[in-house]
Amino acid sequence: MSAPLLDIQGLNIAMRLARGGRLPIVNDLSLTLQAGDTVGIVGESGSGKSLLSLAVMGLLPPAAVVSGRILFEGRDLLSLDDDGMSEIRGRRIGMIFQEPMTALNPAMTVGDQIAEGLVRHEKLSWNAARDRAVELLDRVRIPDPKARASAYPHQMSGGQRQRVGIAIAVAMRPALMIADEPTTALDVTVQAEVLEILDDLCQRESMALMLISHDLGVIARMCARTLVLYAGRRMEEGATRAVLTGPLNPYTKGLLRAVPRRRADDGPLETIPGSVPGFARLPAGCVFSDRCLDVVAACQAGEPAWTSPLPGRGVRCIRAGEEVSA
Amino acid sequence: MTALLLRRSASLFLTLLAVSGLIFLVMQVLPGDPAAIMLGTSASADTLAALRQELGLDQPMLVRYLQWIGGLASGDLGTSITYGVPVAGLIGERLAVTLPLAFIAILLSVAIALPLGVLSAAKRNGPVDYIAGFVSQLFIAVPGFWVGLLLALVFAVKLGVMPSGGFPGWQAGFGPALQALVLPAIALALQQAGVLTRVTRSAVAEVLGEDFVRTARAKGLPKRVTLWRHAVRNALVPVVTILGLQFTFLIAGAVLIENVFNLPGLGRLAYQALTQRDLVVMQDVVMFFAGLVILVNFLVDMSYLILDPRLREASR
Ligand SMILES: Nc1ncnc2c1ncn2[C@@H]1O[C@H](COP(=O)(O)OP(=O)(O)OP(=O)(O)O)[C@@H](O)[C@H]1O
Ligand SMILES: [Mg+2]
């Protein structure tokens, strides 16, 4: 096997608190992507998904303290300074953000916002870059791209803006695309189209995709592999089909039960009882133990280790073995 | 856009009209009969009445108001009571001092405040931010005329490198004329620069927290480019707004500073007209200042349309 495209090893992210001290958020997270891999990252709000993606981009907030290793194309991103990171951002790693309404500069035409990265990384003239921006708008299926290139973001719909966001991110054909809830803010009808555009571009450019979402349906559609996060920890990982059809971790099962079904006769929607406890008040032992339906006394004894009870699968749960043999 | 321009211009005109009425009314209630002041206390009732007629003071108020604004519209601002020359020429002459003075002061305050405010915002809580914060508080706290006196004392009296006051006129050459305006312009600019630095800092700091700045960084733009092209560009509306508001204070400051430095500008003219009860000059100068302030605010309004594309449609 060739060297992985992205190799995250033992990543920890803590937040420096205003009143002093540090609050650990992301804990001992490891994740490997080969070129062209598609990985979905799922977890409830506050589980650290965005922090993980920002850590890869080197755009964590100043209060964040990060340790571990993020190897990308063989270089340790955490040891690069901002200039070094700027060379990689946009050019080798593209990112799409959640909020199309606020993620674009209101005082700059969308064409220029796409062209900007090309001017910076490919040393194109602004005119040449603007022509490329029109092509890119066409590729994300904006009708009449030549005219729309000189539009401002407020003159576009949410779905169109998110396509502009995609055009910005794919402009330099990065090897890795990170999409942080790219469709959460969009109407359901628009979501499908945006996902299709993203999927299409990723395949055509053979980009690896790290897709963050609450929505297991989106992940099932887009990603070959899935990583389930809870309170900054890996809970479960494996091929998407395997994880969704045979979850090993009670947390993943809870997430699956909470997915709305299309059929109307399914009865009331189930939710996981309780909510993600604050990072300052995590239970002893397994961080999910206070909400887990399958909890036993041993769960509180210590944080379960990351184990691999089946080939290609990883899970953090002391009872996962029972699940496999059952 | 053209419709908007027309609408704003109409409202500009109406504002000017309303202000002219207000200024006229205030002048009417000011104590002191200009004719009596011109003639002194020993004048007889007959000569007084004759002069009042000559000045048009015996006419009804409305007639006098209409005559005044009719004159303004046609460029005839009347004749100064004390100087006996047309006020239009008087204002034009004084403008050659005040306008450059104001212009240099604004330029100076922007040249100080913009980089200082932007750098403080970019390096919040760093040494530059603390120093800029201290300096701008200092600028804000110290009155301009006092700075003027201090500057004159140091650079003119002690060091003798700058003129302490007076104005040689532009006919004396660009250099000497400019030199006479430098210290007063600094005195005028510092307080404004202090306020503008604070405003710039907070405006840029706010924009730096916006999502689109992160998008720009995610493209791989270096911090410096993100700062100026994305953050500062979007922070300009509040900065220009404050700059427009400051123009009023700049005019008020010019009256003081021109007197401190003995500059023959409009502010000094206004002050002299006030002490000499030259109602004609006073009325015209105040109207001129008011017109200037209204015009500047109109331009500020218009600049929003350039600075924020969202307003172009919203205001149609
Ligand atoms: N700038 C910050 N300062 C302090 N704490 C932060 C900051 N950003 C995130 N956190 C904390 O880190 C945790 C994880 O945040 P993150 O944004 O990564 O969650 P997420 O999984 O992306 O959630 P969501 O689905 O809501 O986007 C949250 O509990 C949040 O409180
Ligand atoms: Mg998030």
From TrEMBL, chain A:
GO biological process: peptide transport; translation; transmembrane transport
Extent of the signal sequence: none
Protein's membrane topology: Peripheral membrane protein
Coiled coil ranges: none
Subcellular location: Cell inner membrane
Keywords of this entry: ATP-binding, Cell membrane, Membrane, Nucleotide-binding, Transport
Transmembrane region(s): none
Cellular component, GO annotation: plasma membrane; ribosome
Family stated for the protein in its record: Belongs to the ABC transporter superfamily.
Protein name: Peptide ABC transporter ATP-binding protein
Source species: Xaviernesmea oryzae
UniProtKB/TrEMBL annotation, chain B:
Keyword Cell membrane carried by entry: yes
Transmembrane regions: 95-119, 131-157, 169-190, 235-257, 285-307
Alphabetical list of Pfam families matching this protein: BPD_transp_1, BPD_transp_1_N
Main localization, broad class: membrane
InterPro entries named in the record: BPD_transp_1_N (IPR045621), MetI-like (IPR000515), MetI-like_sf (IPR035906)
Keywords linked to the UniProt accession: Cell membrane, Membrane, Transmembrane, Transmembrane helix, Transport
Protein name: Peptide ABC transporter
Domain of life from the UniProt record: Bacteria
Keyword Transcription appears in the UniProt entry: no
Compartment(s): Cell membrane
Topology relative to the membrane: Multi-pass membrane protein
Record-level GO cellular component terms: plasma membrane
Domain annotation ABC transmembrane type-1: ranges: 95-304
GO MF terms, alphabetically ordered: dipeptide transmembrane transporter activity
Record family assignment: Belongs to the binding-protein-dependent transport system permease family.
